[in-house]
Amino acid sequence: xxxxxxxxxxxxxxxxxxxxxxxxxxxxxxxxxxxxxxxxxxxxxxxxxxxxxxxxxxxxxxxxxxxxxxxxxxxxxxxxxxxxxxxxxxxxxxxxxxxxxxxxxxxxxxxxxxxxxxxxxxxxxxxxxxxxxxxxxxxxxxxxxxxxxxxxxxxxxxxxxxxxxxxxxxxxxxxxxxxxxxxxxxxxxxxxxxxxxxxxxxxxxxxxxxxxxxxxxxxxxxxxxxxxxxxxxxxxxxxxxxxxxxxxxxxxxxxxxxxxxxxxxxxxxxxxxxxxxxxxxxxxxxxxxxxxxxxxxxxxxxxxxxxxxxxxxxxxxxxxxxxxxxxxxxxxxxxxxxxxxxxxxxxxxxxxxxxxxxxxxxxxxxxxxxxxxxxxxxxxxxxxxxxxxxxxxxxxxxxxxxxxxxxxxxxxxxxxxxxxxxxxx
Length: 425
What we know:
By secondary structure, the chain is α+β, with helices and mostly antiparallel strands. Helices cover 17% and strands 48% of the residues. It contains eight helices and 23 strands. A hairpin with a 5-residue loop joins strand 9 and strand 10 (287-294). Residues 1-22 have low confidence and may be disordered.
């Protein structure tokens, strides 16, 4: 197949993939994380097997290894509400009132009325935690390793038919509605049909905690072709994938929500296919443009209770330009809008700069989720690295411009930290 046909075939696959959703495209590595998430055109060779196998084609290193770990947090709307309910001591107050509703104090009633409004606004909100870990290895044009990514989150489900503040009285079988601010006698039928306490106790107002952790072992290879217009690198990875999925529906006021969550997990395994391109035009030698598609065969994993989680193809384009030996800029953009397990969509565009100051490397960048449900705003990224090539230390962080607040304490709506050690010869 000619190089032009390779490009056309790959781009056609990418266009089809844009019609689907996928897990969030997580580019691994502290450098990429601190350069606005840009990495598919400038990833270190030790991570190329995961980020873009085409970059292995021009690997000048005989051997390289990268060991890293990171964790990302996203508040998709639930953080402030959970904090506000905690500050009100909703769980404690409702326990005091339930079973003694006719004697509820003014303060208790006001607390529950405030909590009622907070809970009503929580439907569909949630949170996400995205841990990552990597052990990447390259030797010449080949790459392999062990790469772990996770999509873990919770989403709040509020029963819209059960919002009334009806609680049981001190005498068994008696019920009182305090919605108006004063206890009013009610009955069991109305309690069962409309009470917010009934919904919480019986789990129709709840939090669904779901997660999928995926571990990949790829065998990747990259090869370069001279097109006459520049060097076209083509790479692919066939990877063994092991997934652990879990699910637990927990009560809104359950303080031990995540206890024994591994008891509700299922393991399964499959294979995945990644393909990548990288092009260096002859007339602009320091420029690299890249395209990568991950999980092009739509691998799937078993989930609790039957059914499967399908990992839809995710496609990203990127570019990098080196001004000299000490300065580089890069930019990536997702071509697919990727949906998490809790329904939060991501489609990132971002970029940054790397400055190699001999004894110290500095990275800065910006990124933005351009999906319709973005709540984080612009995400600032930065990082530093130090040490010789044979023992390199890297640290990066991300922080969203938008913030939430709990009890007067502000926190970013999205954040991440990443640490890595690498070595190359």
